[in-house]
Amino acid sequence: MQEHLPAAHNPFIDLLPPQGIKLTPQHYAYLKISEGCNHRCSFCIIPSMRGDLVSRPIDEVLREAQTLADSGVKELLIVSQDTSAYGVDLQYQEGLWQDRHWRTRFYDLASALGELGIWVRMHYVYPYPHVDEIIPLMAAGKILPYLDIPFQHANSRILKLMKRPAAAENNLERIKAWRKICPDLTIRSTFIVGFPGETEAEFEELLAFLDEAQLDRVGCFTYSPVKGAAANDLPDQIPESVKEQRLARFMEKQAEISAARLQRRVGRIETVLIDEVVEEGAVARSQSDAPEIDGQVFIDGATHLQVGDFVTVEIEEADDYDMWARLV
Ligand code: SF4
Fold first, then answer.
1. Contact present, 295 and 289 (Cβ < 8 Å)
2. Ligand 1 within 6 A of 193 CB?
3. Which atom of ligand 1 is nearest to the CA of 40?
4. Residue 82 in contact with ligand 1 by CB distance below 6 A
5. In whole angstroms, what is the distance from residue 276 CA to residue 25 CA?
6. Does the CB atom of residue 44 touch ligand 1 within 6 A?
7. Which residue owns the Cα nearest ligand 1 atom 2?
8. Helices 171-181 and 200-213, packing angle to 10 deg
9. Is any atom of ligand 1 closer than 6 Å to the C-beta of 41?
10. pLDDT tens-digit profile of 230-288?
11. What is the pLDDT of residues 177-236, one digit of tens each?
12. What is the pLDDT of residues 98-140, one digit of tens each?
């Protein structure tokens, strides 16, 4: 029915192109599914600035995704403050897209986007139990086998002090179970070291977690107080020098893990997406690499390729973060 359809785009009166404004190259786009957050992590002031979670109805999100795909976008990066909580505020309300009913819910979002036939990458997912449901979609190739989960720490006392969502989940067990279903799953995460009160033993627990979890891509920051954040009032702030040492120890350990995980891919045949063509060849990304934050795949000599092409390559070499490949 007409009243449920979006207004047709009129290029003479609309200021925006039908696919919206994308401050990213044409072949990939960020798709924001919600704004705000229901959590109150003690180091964060986003909820006080942006308010509680407000999800966009699923039909609206899917229509935008479809428009982007139709305009030539090859990869959608799903972003929000808490992607796994999508739709909670709307009581998972239903919407119509392509003659089917979908709930405003993380699983429905993932499975509907999986029908577009382009890469779909999930960012800012918290390890709630219902996240398990989307791993089979990844194993089936519907959405990219990639989860960006900001764990922030591994010690339960620190996680509680941080007031992190899903802090009580047994993340190591979950990661193992996910990898059993989807062996190619790439997990990216971020961590904070030197949170107020973090003892040497708690920091070492974090290092041990890295050993066990074998995460693929990891970012780490030293804790720094943000004006207005609750954690500023916590006792036992850690001296800067200790924070810096912990950051260096953390990064050293993770660099070894990342390098070993990339080495295992040498010799494999993979599909990559071309991001850039330069004088020496093409610069691409694998399924494991989100733009701007992860690694790249360099294909020497492949100057005939176009940005946005999907090509099949054999991985020939890897260092700590990037890989080199040849066309097959
Ligand atoms: S850090 Fe915590 S409070 Fe801040 S946006 Fe993320 S989940 Fe919400």
1. yes
2. no
3. 3
4. yes
5. 10
6. yes
7. 41
8. 10
9. yes
10. 999 899 999 999 999 999 999 999 999 999 999 999 999 999 999 999 999 999 999 99
11. 999 999 999 999 999 999 999 999 999 999 999 999 999 999 999 999 989 999 998 999
12. 999 999 999 999 999 999 999 999 999 998 889 999 999 999 9
Q: Does pLDDT of 12 surpass 60?
A: no
Q: Which residue owns the Cα nearest ligand 1 atom 4?
A: 44
β pairing state of 119-122 and 100-103? unpaired
53 vs 34: CA distance, rounded Å: 7
**Cα 135 from Cα 8, distance rounded (Å):** 36
Cβ(131) – ligand 1 distance below 6 Å: no
Report the nearest atom of ligand 1 relative to the CA of 47: 3
Distance, CA 229 to ligand 1 centroid (Å)?
11
Confidence of residue 170 (pLDDT cuts 50, 70, 90): confident
Pocket test for ligand 1, best of 81, 125, 126, 149 (most atoms within 8 A of CB): 81
Whether 81 lines ligand 1, by a CB cut-off of 6 Å, is yes
Best residue among 32, 44, 190 to mutate for probing ligand 1's pocket (most ligand atoms within 8 Å of CB) is 44
Placement of tokens 């800067």 in the chain? 240
